[in-house]
C-alpha cells in the first residue's frame, strides 16, 4: 500500500504547477477515486485536496520569498484563477499576504512532502465478516461534519440524547425505549466533510414527519468489524472505534482484494446486556472487488 501511496505522491509533486485531477492521482496508486480519497485521508490525516493545496502554497511562498516572482505569476503557476483568490488562500495558510511574504524576517509555514515508512503491523488479529445486505430506508437527525469526525460527532450525539431527540426517533420508528440508534456516514466530499445521521430503519407503515432526514440505502456488500464501548453519564463512549477505523484502512484494505464502494458507512450499536451500559459497535463499510480481481 505504501509503495502505491508513494507513487501517488510522486505524481502530485511532478504536477503541482499543472492542473491535477484526483482521478489521475488515484490512478497512480492503482485505485478508484472514491477508495483512494478515503484511504489517503485515513493514513495521512489530510485530504487529497488539502495536501495539493498546502504543497502548492508552500512552494509559492518559497518562490515569493526567495525570488522576484510576481504575485500574479505565482497565482497562475499554482492553479489559481486570480491574484485575489491566491492571496486569500495564501493568507489563510501563512497568516500574511503574498506581498508581506517578501519582507525579511517574516515567518512562513512549510508543508513538507509526505513520505511513508513501512511499519510492521497486523500483530493483533482483525475479526470481520462479509454481509450481503438488502437496501433499506432510514431516517433520523443529521448534521454536517466538517473536519474532525470524532470530535464533532460525540457533541452531536450528546445533544440528541440530552434534548430528547434520541427517544423521539425511537418512538417514531416503533423501537423500544432506550434502543441505541445507528450512525450513518454519507455524502462524502473531496474536502473530507460528510453528513452524519443518527437514526434507524423506517418501517413500511411509518410516515416520516418534516424535520427528519431520510436516507435511502441500496443493496450493498459490506465488510463488518466489531468494536466495544460503554455508556457514561448518558453519552455513548467508544474510543476503540477510532482505532478500528484506522486499522481498516492501514491494515485490512491493503491485505485484501477489496476496495471501498460508494455508499453510506454505518456504525451499528447494540447493547451487550439489559444493564444498558456496555455495547458493541459494528462498523459496516460498503466494499467491492478491486477491478484487477473482477
Automatic annotation (TrEMBL):
<dbReference type="Pfam" id="PF12833">
    <property type="entry name" value="HTH_18"/>
</dbReference>
<dbReference type="GO" id="GO:0003700">
    <property type="term" value="F:DNA-binding transcription factor activity"/>
</dbReference>
<dbReference type="InterPro" id="IPR011256">
    <property type="entry name" value="Reg_factor_effector_dom_sf"/>
</dbReference>
<dbReference type="InterPro" id="IPR009057">
    <property type="entry name" value="Homeodomain-like_sf"/>
</dbReference>
<dbReference type="GO" id="GO:0043565">
    <property type="term" value="F:sequence-specific DNA binding"/>
</dbReference>
<keyword id="KW-0805">Transcription regulation</keyword>
<dbReference type="Pfam" id="PF14526">
    <property type="entry name" value="Cass2"/>
</dbReference>
<keyword id="KW-0238">DNA-binding</keyword>
<dbReference type="InterPro" id="IPR050959">
    <property type="entry name" value="MarA-like"/>
</dbReference>
<dbReference type="InterPro" id="IPR010499">
    <property type="entry name" value="AraC_E-bd"/>
</dbReference>
<dbReference type="InterPro" id="IPR018062">
    <property type="entry name" value="HTH_AraC-typ_CS"/>
</dbReference>
<dbReference type="InterPro" id="IPR029441">
    <property type="entry name" value="Cass2"/>
</dbReference>
<protein>
    <submittedName>
        <fullName>AraC family transcriptional regulator</fullName>
    </submittedName>
</protein>
<keyword id="KW-0804">Transcription</keyword>
<feature type="domain" description="HTH araC/xylS-type">
    <location>
        <begin position="6"/>
        <end position="104"/>
    </location>
</feature>
<dbReference type="InterPro" id="IPR018060">
    <property type="entry name" value="HTH_AraC"/>
</dbReference>
Amino acid at each position: 500500500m505504501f509503495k502505491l501511496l508513494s507513487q501517488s505522491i510522486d505524481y502530485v509533486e511532478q504536477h503541482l504547477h499543472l492542473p491535477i485531477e484526483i482521478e489521475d492521482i488515484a490512478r497512480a496508486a492503482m485505485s478508484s477515486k472514491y477508495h483512494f480519497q478515503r484511504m489517503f485521508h485515513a493514513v495521512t490525516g489530510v485530504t487529497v485536496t488539502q495536501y495539493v493545496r498546502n504543497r502548492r502554497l508552500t512552494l509559492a511562498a518559497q518562490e515569493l520569498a526567495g525570488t522576484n516572482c510576481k504575485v500574479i505569476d505565482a497565482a497562475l503557476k499554482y492553479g489559481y484563477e486570480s491574484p485575489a483568490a491566491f492571496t486569500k488562500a495564501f493568507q489563510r495558510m501563512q497568516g500574511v499576504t503574498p506581498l508581506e511574504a517578501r519582507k525579511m524576517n517574516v515567518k512562513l509555514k512549510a508543508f513538507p512532502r509526505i513520505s511513508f515508512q513501512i511499519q510492521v503491523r497486523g500483530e493483533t488479529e482483525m475479526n470481520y465478516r462479509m454481509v450481503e445486505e438488502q437496501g433499506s430506508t432510514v431516517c433520523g437527525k443529521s448534521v454536517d461534519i466538517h473536519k474532525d469526525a470524532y470530535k464533532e460527532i460525540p457533541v452531536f450525539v450528546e445533544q440528541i440524547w440530552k434534548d430528547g431527540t434520541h427517544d423521539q426517533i425511537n418512538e417514531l420508528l416503533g423501537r423500544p425505549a432506550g434502543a441505541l440508534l445507528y450512525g450513518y456516514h454519507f455524502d462524502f466530499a473531496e474536502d473530507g466533510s460528510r453528513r452524519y445521521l443518527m437514526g434507524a430503519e423506517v418501517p413500511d407503515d411509518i410516515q416520516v414527519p418534516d424535520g427528519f432526514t431520510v436516507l435511502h440505502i441500496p443493496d450493498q456488500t459490506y465488510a463488518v468489524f466489531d468494536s466495544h464501548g460503554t455508556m457514561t453519564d448518558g453519552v455513548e463512549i467508544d474510543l476503540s472505534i477510532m482505532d478500528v477505523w484506522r486499522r481498516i484502512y492501514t491494515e485490512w484494505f491493503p491485505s485484501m482484494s477489496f476496495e471501498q464502494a460508494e455508499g453510506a458507512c454505518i456504525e451499528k450499536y447494540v447493547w451487550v446486556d439489559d444493564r444498558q451500559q456496555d455495547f458493541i459497535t459494528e462498523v459496516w463499510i460498503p466494499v467491492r472487488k478491486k477491478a484487477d480481481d473482477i
